Amino acid sequence: MMALTGLFLILFLVVHLIGNLQLLAGDGGRRFNEYSHFMSHSLLIQTVSKLNFAFIILHVLYSLWLSRQAHAARPQGYEGKPALQTATWSSRNMGILGTVILLFLIVHLKGFWYELKFGAVPSITYAGAPEPLHNAYQVVRAAYAQAWYAGFYILSMVFLGFHLHHGFQSAFHTLGLSNYRYKPLIRTVGTVFAILVPMLFALIPAVMHLQSLGY
Amino acid sequence: MENQSLRLKLRVWRQASSQAKGAFEMYELAAVPVHASFLEMMDLLNEQLIREGKEPVAFDHDCREGICGMCSLYINGRAHGPQRGTTTCQLHMRHFQDGETITVEPFRAAAFPVLKDLAVNRSAFDRIQQAGGYVTVNTGNAPDGNAVPIPKTDADEAFMSAACIGCGACVAACKNASAMLFVSAKVSQYALLPQGQPEHRERVLSMVEAMDMEGFGHCTNTGACEAECPKGISVENIARLNRSYLAAQLSGGGTSAVATSD
After folding, report:
1. CA-based nearest residue in chain A for residue B105
2. Are residues B161 and B103 in the same domain?
3. Chain A: nearest CA to B145, how far in angstroms?
C-alpha cells in the first residue's frame, strides 16, 4: 500500500514538476497561466487530482497504522546505542521526513491550491485570447517574493529528497520488482531522481525570489 | 596484545521470568582474555557470580561454532555485537577496548518474549517453519544426486538462502521487528528448486500468514536485517517473497496437489 500510493505520488511529482517549470519560461507567466487554466478545466486532470488527494491521505493513514504495528511488535526498545548504524538515515526516519513533508503540503495547498480555487485571484487578458485568465503566476510570484516562504519551500525539498531516496527503491522492493540484476539500476535511478526532482522544484522559488529582488 | 586481558564493565539485562519486570545490573570483570569469545566472557561472569553466591545470568548458546543459531544477545546496540557476519559465539573480546562498558540486552520483539535474563523464546520461528517451510516427500532411501538436473546458479542461490540458521538477528535488528528476512530465506530455499515448485504458492501464503499471526512487524526495506545477518542472507530474498506472495494472491491461493503416498 505504501509502495503503490508512493509510486503514484512519485509519478505525480514528475507531472507537477514539468508543469511548474513553465513558471521559469520568462514570458511574464503567460504559458503558466494558460497551463493552469487548462489543468483546472480538464475533467481528466480534476479526476486524477482527487485521486491524488486520496492517495496522499491513504499514504499517511497507512503509515500511521504501520507505525502502530511496529510499536506493538517491539513494545520495549533497546538502550544500547550502536557505534555504527546498519541502515541508511533516511530509511530509519521516513516518519519524521514524511511529517515535515505533510506540514509543507498543508502550507503549500493553503498558499496556492486554496488561494487559486477559493481566493480572490487577479485576472489577466492576453492578446488573441478569447477570455481573461486567472493570473496564477502573479499569486506564485507574490508568495516567492517573501524570503521565508521561498526558504521554507527550498528546505522542504531537501526533506523530500531524503524521503524519496529511501522511498523510490523501497517501493520497487516491496512490489517484488527488484532482484540482483535490477537492484543497482533501481538504486541509481532512485538516487538521481531523489536529487534531481527536489532540486528542480527548489529552483523555482529560488529563481523567482531572486527575480523579485531584481536580478 | 598476545596474552593481554581486559578490565570490563558489563551492563546486563536481568529479568527473573517472562512476567517479572527486568532491569539493568552492573558487573565488573577484572581480567578477560582478549582471545575469549563473547560467550566465554559471559561464562567468566557467571563463574564469578556463582563464587559470590549470586544467580548466574541466563543466556542462550549451543554449538559455539557459529552454525546452530542458538546464541543471541544485543551487544552495544547491535545484534550479535559489532562484527559483521558473526554470531555472538564467534565474536571475540579483542574487538572491545580495555575499560569499556558493554551493554548486553536480550533480542527485543513481542514475538520473542524474554524467558529469563538474556534468553528469549524464539519458537515463533518454529511455528512459521511448520506452516510451510518443508517439501512433502516420502522418506526412505536418499535419492540419487543429480537425478533432477538443477542449474548451478539456482542451486547456489538456493544454498545461500538455506544458510539461514534462524537465529532471529534480523528481527532483533529491524526497527519494526519484522521477520521478513527469515521467512523469505525459508521460502527462497525451495522457490529456486524444482522440488519446491508443487507447494510453492501454498507455502508462501501459509508462512506469511503464520508470520503475521506471531505478531512480527512489517518490512520497510531498511536493510538492517541483511547487515546484521551472521550468514549474510540477502534482502533480495524479501523481494522474491513479495513477488511470490503477490503472484500467489492474484492466482487465487495455493494448490496442494502433492501425492503423499506411493
Report:
1. A78
2. no
3. 28
Distance in Å, alpha carbon of A102 to nearest chain B alpha carbon: 19
Nearest chain B residue to A170 by CA distance is B221
Size of interface A-B (CB pairs under 8 A): 114
Judged by CB atoms closer than 8 Å, whether chains meet at A174 and B243 is answered as no
Both B132 and B70 in a single domain? Answer: no
pTM above 0.95, yes or no: no
Domain count, chain A: 1
Q: Pick the last residue of a domain from B92, B116, B140.
A: B116
Shared-domain flag, residues B159 and B217: yes
Q: What is the pLDDT of residues A14-73, one digit of tens each?
A: 999 999 999 998 888 899 999 999 998 999 999 999 999 999 999 999 999 999 999 999
Q: Taking CB atoms and an 8 Å cutoff, what residues of chain B touch A73?
A: 109-111, 176-178, 215-217
Of B116, B134, B165, the residue at which a domain comes to its end is B116
CATH code for the domain of B161? 1.10.1060.10
Q: What CATH number did the domain enclosing A121 receive?
A: 1.20.1300.10
Inter-residue long-range contacts of A160-163, CB under 8 Å, 24+ positions, other chains counted: A160/A97, A160/A101, A160/A104, A160/A197, A160/A198, A160/A201, A161/A194, A161/A195, A161/A197, A161/A198, A161/A199, A162/A89, A162/A90, A162/A93, A162/A97, A162/A194, A163/A90, A163/A94, A163/A97, A163/A98, A163/A101
Residue in chain A nearest B214 by alpha carbon: A73
* ipTM rounded to 2 decimals: 0.88
